[in-house]
Amino acid sequence: MMYGLSWFRCDHKSLKFILIGMLLLAIIHIYLSISFVDFNSKIFVFLHIVAILVLILMFLSIVFKGIVPVAISCLGLVLLYGSIVIPSVASDSLGPFYYKASMGNLNFDSISRGSHGFFLLGISMIVFSIIIAYKPTILYIRNRPVPAEDLWSEYPKWDEKMQFAGTRMESLIRIPLLLSDTEKYLLWRYEFILVVIYGTVYQVPINSCIPESSIILRDPKSRKIIGYSKYGYFM
Asked: How far is the C-alpha of 45 from the C-alpha of 85, rounded, in Å?
């Protein structure tokens, strides 16, 4: 519930207008589908103009949100427009018809089903474009890989110039003094490594000084140093 409210607050004016626009189009669609107003009548001309204005304004609410939501919304708006116009325009074509040596019969029910299908598909595409434009994280699959920035952000950065008061009672040493000879040669490849200092895991730059009691964090299986590579991959 709270997740839905936080989404709605995000650019809520545009979202409210789109929702109101879809409601107005639904009312117009239902009215024209039931009554089959003649497309030359004044009421149809009025509703037609209102529908076009609403569709244009709905499009403007999404147009600056990226090419993907714009493309999807365009298809949805065209389908919504067709669901409103088709029932009245096709009312003059009721009865048997011939097309490419085949014969069919256009009746009230077939037009109604077709227009309803267009409307539902158009609404679905508009909703899909809204999700992509305003809250694409809804579409993210479960167990999606965590970005590297988020993975490392949970560890505070170590600054030897702003130590805790307790560290002044303990000597500071360079990181290489806690490493094996092989690890010393590989240390230049890291931007920072993870070090446990007084029970807290820190991001420590490789040229930093740390308390003597610090523990270099290692992988439980390989016993390799855990840190962030300067070349964009995990180490």
From this structure: 10
